[in-house]
Amino acid sequence: MNASSYSTYYHSFTVPNYDSFYTIDVIAYNDTSYSSWAYTTFSSGPSPTPPSGVGSIIIGSVEQTSVYVNWDDATNFTDYRVEYKLATSSSYTFVSYRSVSNYTLSGLSADTEYDVKVYARRQLSDGSYINGTPSVTRFKTKGNRPSDWSWYTPKTSGGNFNITAGEWNSFTNRINDYRLYKGFPYYNFTTATSGLSFTASKFNEACSAISAMNPPTVPPSSKSIDDIIYATYINRLRDSINSII
User: Fold this and answer.
1) Sequence-distant contacts of 101-107: CB under 8 A, at least 24 apart
2) How many Å apart are CA 58 and CA 116, to the nearest integer?
3) Calpha distance 189→212 (Å, rounded)
4) How crowded is residue 56: how many other Cβ atoms within 10 Å of its Cβ?
């Protein structure tokens, strides 16, 4: 750098490394000669402390095209950076800088796995940022709602009706479709077998698996050995699962 004559010169600059020694050399000159070099040394400051990590990312409300996430507050931070990607992708997409420890990701695809990444940032005096350790977690968006269930043959009050083993097993499979849709684990139903008696325990499994999802239409109460299973009970199972939204 050159400075004009007969003036006090000030110059600020950025050094490339923290915790390092540097030397500044200065020489005066005119049209015909140069002075001796003058110099001084200085040490750059210590590396700034990065913000802490954000801890675990907690997946909250999961919908078909959105998900709510939050995380524990970091310390020594300016803001949070939120990114996400498809689980099968290698690169993240930036979505937001946040001053609070939560965010709703939107515009997602149903029944799809994603990774969300969050890390805290700290702004330095020169305007640059130093990053904390990122936290990453995986989630899956809610699938499309299963279609309503209909019995293969009508179950009419006041007369005998029939449910085949295949029809009942298909019904319990549909219950599990709804359980996965609502974020519940797969229910291990007892398989109905053609030629064997339909027991109260199988009926009660369906009631329990549906009831756990808190459907607007409550399923029928559980039954005991020798209780009669009426058509109204069977249709109430259908109505209960179809009431789930």
Assistant:
1) 101/54, 101/70, 101/71, 101/72, 101/73, 102/68, 102/69, 102/70, 102/71, 103/68, 103/69, 103/70, 104/66, 104/67, 104/68, 104/69, 105/66, 105/67, 105/69, 106/65, 106/66, 107/65, 107/66
2) 10
3) 14
4) 11
Say if pTM beats, i.e. exceeds, 0.70.
no
* Cα–Cα distance list, 38 to 2, 3, 42, 109 (Å): 15, 15, 14, 66
**pLDDT: which is higher, 32 or 203:** 203
Question: Whose CA is closest to 134, among 215, 51, 219, 210?
Answer: 51
Closest CA to 55 of 174, 136, 139: 136
Q: What is the pLDDT of residue 47?
A: 81
Start-to-end CA distance of the chain, whole Å, equals 71
Other beta carbons less than 10 A from residue 76's beta carbon: 13
Q: Which residue has the higher pLDDT, 222 or 4?
A: 222
Residues 6+ apart with CB under 8 A from 104: 66, 67, 68, 69
Q: How far apart are CA 26 and CA 103, in angstroms?
A: 53
Quick one: DSSP state of residue 137? Answer: E
Alpha-carbon distances of 225 from 198, 203, 206, rounded to whole Å: 11, 11, 16
| Cα–Cα–Cα angle for 29, 34, 38, rounded to 5 degrees | 90
Query: What per-residue confidence (pLDDT) applies to 4?
Result: 67
Sign of CA dihedral 71, 77, 79, 83: negative
**Amino acid, single-letter form, for residue 242:** N
